[in-house]
Amino acid sequence: MATNPADNRPRPEPGGLCSRFSIEVGEQLAGTAPLARAWVVVEQPGAYGRDALVESYLPADVARHVSSFKADGQVRPLLVRRNAGRAHRGERSLAAGGPQIRRAWWCRADPGSAALWSLPFTDPQELLALDLAKLAAGRPDLVHPDAVPDPEPMLLVCTNGARDRCCAIRTRPIAAALFADPDRAERVWECSHLGGHRFAPTAVQLPHGWVHGRLDLTTACQVLDAARRGQLALETARGWSALNPPAQAADLAVRRQFGLDTLDGLDVKQSTGDPNEWLVFAPGHEPARVRVFSEPVRAHPDSCGSDPTLDEQWKAEILTLPAC
């Protein structure tokens, strides 16, 4: 690994992968999920640019509408496609939105009420009728009158190589294998930039909003299969998207301490007396007190080819173990 003698920080080698640096410095997964209280997903074949919503074949007015409630983590928009190989063979007619039936999904990452809603469409302009204010307000059932519940969980794996090549190099082989698996193919999609590509392969499981990282084919299958059983695959979990990063770290510390694999989010509240202390309420237990603080980690890049900038991570320490 090349270093800068002036500050002794690791410098990315030409061709180095940010996901490799993240592993080398021992960066942990907990507390790294993007903040998203709700998700809206649009099936959009074709190639994606760095900013997929505006650098794809999705019409600009539709892209603006789908991303209109993105601020402050209210609604996280994603594009999905069946596979990048097909997209990069230049099927422009499909990507531009011909008569093929496509789908949109949305959900809230709410504890105890996670549900996925689906709407078929043939013309992307139909998506302008989505009332995303209702989604942001916690009423996914009122987003569109023709939407129907989709009872099966789905796994979206980030392959947005134009945003960061780790997502392409590490994730596309896994996506291809999942698409070839008849038991899982219909519930797996490639998606646009998810966030945290240094943890590639990374994915989000909807409707529950659990984000995962450093997947391989085996663990990707485990995430989806566990969700179908109503369980969380703890090993690869980065956090529940409805929580901010320190709350995610507190939540996962308690889950891993007690092996709590429920998909429902635990009740996590910041202490009124100490902003670094969190109370985590788990079913069947008294609340756990957890201190969350910033811990230094060797500086490393957050994207392939960038300079090292990340030098801290969230660390959770359980102060009081809940009684059973």
The CATH topology label of the domain at 18-242 is Glutaredoxin
* Biggest beta-sheet profile: 10 strands, mixed
Which CATH architecture of the domain at 18-242?
Answer: 3-Layer(aba) Sandwich
The share of residues in helices is 10-25%
Mean pLDDT over the full residue set: 88
What's the total helix number?
A: 8
CATH class designation of the domain at 18-242: Alpha Beta
How far apart are the first and last residues' alpha carbons, in Å?
48 Å
Structural shape: globular
C-alpha Rg (nearest Å): 20 Å
Question: CATH superfamily of the domain at 18-242, called what?
Answer: Glutaredoxin
* Run of helices and strands: EEHEHEHHEEHEEHEEEHEHEEEE
Binned strand content: 25-35%
Structural class: alpha+beta
Give the number of DSSP strands.
16
Poorly predicted runs are: 1-14, 87-93
Question: Which helices and strands occur, and which strands form pairs?
Answer:
Blueprint: E1 2-3, E2 10-11, H1 18-24, E3 38-43, H2 60-66, E4 76-81, H3 84-87, H4 92-95, E5 102-108, E6 116-121, H5 132-136, E7 148-150, E8 154-158, H6 165-179, E9 188-191, E10 203-206, E11 210-212, H7 217-228, E12 237-240, H8 245-258, E13 267-270, E14 277-281, E15 288-300, E16 310-320
Parallel strand pairs: 3-4, 8-9
Antiparallel strand pairs: 1-2, 3-5, 4-9, 5-6, 6-7, 8-10, 10-11, 11-12, 13-14, 14-15, 15-16
